[in-house]
């Protein structure tokens, strides 16, 4: 039961983070189109509680998401300059 309560703490932290950095939603949408079903299944398992929220920090999810955020930031910065 304690692990169930810890999931709420992670969900709250993630919600606050995404509220401050909405580009992560754009990055997730873009990445899910690129990576396809395998990425979505893994993400869905974490979001529904089948897997722990800490799995977001595994390299197979975290690194592609970070690289996509960097790519989108560069893209948005170029669009602002032009």
Summarize this entry quickly.
With 82 residues, the protein is mainly alpha-helical. The chain has helices at 2-20, 23-35, 37-48, 59-81. It has one domain.
Detailed description of the structure:
- The structure is a single chain.
- This protein is mainly alpha-helical.
- It has one domain (about 1-80).
- About 80% of the residues lie in helices and about 0% in strands.
- The chain has helices at about 1-20, 25-35, 35-50, 60-80.
- The longest helix has 23 residues, at about 60-80.
- The chain is globular and about 45 Å long.
- The termini are far apart.
The total number of structural domains is: 1
Average pLDDT confidence is 84
Distance between the termini: 53 Å
Q: How many strands, what sense, and barrel or not for the largest sheet? A: none
Query: Low-confidence parts lasting 5 or more residues at pLDDT below 50?
Result: none
Structural class by sheet pairing and helices: mainly alpha
Number of helical segments? 4
Radius of gyration: 14 Å
The amount of beta strand, in percent, is: under 5%
Quantity of strands, as a count = 0
Helix content: over 70%
Secondary-structure element string = HHHH
- Form type: globular
List keywords for this structure.
mainly alpha, 82 residues, globular, 4 helices, single chain
What is the fold's blueprint, element by element?
Layout: H1 2-20, H2 23-35, H3 37-48, H4 59-81
Helix pairs in contact: 2-4
